[in-house]
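To assess whether ligand presence alters the predicted conformation, the chain was also submitted together with tryptophanyl-5'AMP. Input:
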Amino acid sequence: MRIVSGIQPTGNLHLGNYLGAIKNWVKLQEESECLFFLADLHAITVHNDPAELSANCRNMVAALVAAGVDTQKSILFNQARVPAHAELAWLLICNTPMGWLDRMTQFKEKSGKHKQRSSLGLLAYPVLQAADVLIYHATHVPVGEDQRQHLELARDIAAKFNNDTGTEVFTQPEAYYGETAARIMSLRDGTAKMSKSDPSDLSRINMTDDNDTIAKKIQKARTDAEPLPATVAELEGRAEATNLVGIYATLEDRSVQSVLDQYAGQGFGSFKPELAELAVAHLSPIRDRYEALRQDTGAIDEILRDGAERARLLAQPAVESAYAALGLLRD
Ligand code: TYM
């Protein structure tokens, strides 16, 4: 197994990223070869503030290490330091039909009413994402559910390139979702995903929130008036309840059913304080480590440089094979 995944260094880690993806990264690095990166080249597809981007990249490294990414076991780097990502993206862009990109729901969401003014990079975004994983022959890509369409596109792009060039340059990657947390929803609306771009800070738990803020956000989370049911099937149609029970289960690495076994018949008045206590117990050590690590920018830059050096070596063969498959002369 070769595991590859990325995160955009825009803003900070939130509970959705952590439970949907990063917790799995930390688990997978124990048994497999892993490459994790900051998708800084993806971050510039929308409005960019250069000083903020550099600061966000360094903070994200501190957050990932604080959350358990071990740079002895995993390779951690930023895309911009491994030019092969951008190189392969161009080769793949030239072999990807526009129609495939037009169907991407995240492009539609992000470009909104301003499609004509959006960058060409925002449209091409999923092709760079395909390059990110294909370049390392990733077998598994641990992501949240919101990346499903992008991952399927990466598989299609790999198949088309191999087919068109009559080669086997690329391996088909598979998505890897956590058992319960592939989709953590907003605390204010159980039908919208928890996201860094939601204007309401009450909608998400940031990994930098202090204990009181975490507890307050859970206390204010939207719910319904019914007590918790005894079975998973009875959660159907109760988006907010499903989300809070799912968060509890994932934090504790338990099944949703076992959480319901414990809380069936109880209302949110008693469930929420226990969820808040659990969230604080899990997140506060990560936050404290993060605050300490982010002070040492020298150490952070060293992690990224070292990771990039290792990643460059692994990336080179696939780019060279792709150039050769297309008949491009090199050396
Ligand atoms: P990004 O930065 O939006 O999110 C990073 C990871 O967190 C997951 N995630 C969630 N999971 C569950 N519930 C949520 N509410 C939630 N919000 C975010 C995402 O699914 C993701 O796994 N395009 C990607 C970054 C990327 C990438 C890649 C990922 C670039 N190249 C190659 C995998 C492989 C993104 O913007 O993720």
